[in-house]
Amino acid sequence: GLAVAQKPEMVNNPAQFAPVDEAMSDVVGLGLRRLAKQDPQKALSMLDGYAATMHFSREEQVEIAKEIGLTLARRYDDRALEVMTKYDPELRDDTVTEWRLRLLLRLGRWEDAYELARRLPK
Q1: pTM score, two decimals?
Q2: How many domains would you assign to the chain?
Q3: Where on the tree of life does the source sit, at the highest rank (predicted)?
């Protein structure tokens, strides 16, 4: 597991990781989150590729939403919304939610922003 954290490019080989339990999935998640700091585009496309086979823990999903989602969001890349929505559907992370709102407003998606704001804990 540690090797992936040190060499993010190892996550390029999905075959290494089958079959996948939660612990192993989270190792991959960590690798993808590290990769996102250097290359969010690539991390995003790999995340899509892995999504079907990985069983990320709820905690790891939120971390993915946070690190990959926010990296994209800060570049105002609207694909951030997809990641944040998918990996933090329960609005568990305030920063993720705040950036989702910010991005929706910036994109002029008022309805979506309104819906999201209504779901915020008071």
Answers
A1: 0.74
A2: 1
A3: Bacteria
